[in-house]
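As a next step, we paired sequence with structure tokens, yielding the entry below.
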Amino acid sequence: MTTTPPVDGRSALRAERRRAILDAARTLATEHGPDGFTVEQVAAVAGVSRRTVFNHVAGLDQLLVAVCEQILAEATVALLGEVERRTADLPSGAAGGRAALDAMAEATRVVDLPTAIATIHRLLGCPEIGDERAQRISRTAFDHVGGRLRAQLVHRAPGLDPVDLELDLALLFSGIVTIAGLWLEQHPDLAPDVPAGARTDWDALLDRVLERLRPGAHRAEPPGSPTAP
């Protein structure tokens, strides 16, 4: 006979309050911009005390980071699921590690990053390109996603070279953050319902990032080789 583990009521309540706080902050930021609301307003909308909000986050910027992570969560679930599918049957040794990294890169093609990026852009008040605060908030959220992806890859390919893993993750997520800025510059008034033309432009930019992650992409050919310029 199997038994269901008891649910930790305190943990469940904390998670419920955190969701309520993030939902409240997301609603307020969407309606009033990232600087148009206070912690007190978040607490009132969430139905918790001001102190409870600060038990979960240190301040408004950390709260916005958490909301951006929430927006990225759906894409993250899809990304992790796609990586899981693509790494189900890896070769052993170094080949398996390389295959896992390739799977991670290719998985980014099939997740809906454009919607997440457009939604975050609106949440942060459609900031100007180069806005340091917005860049810090969105980059921190992407770094947290990268941490989840790192853990999954290590689990799926335990022989993965740790230097290769860190370099590929750094290149991939720095590249995504960079092209997100370029893409939003091309399409500054995007709604979360991203039109087909903007998605095509995103795919073209992502292709350029992934091209640079392929083995040998930066390797100079020796003079006189058939492929040397």
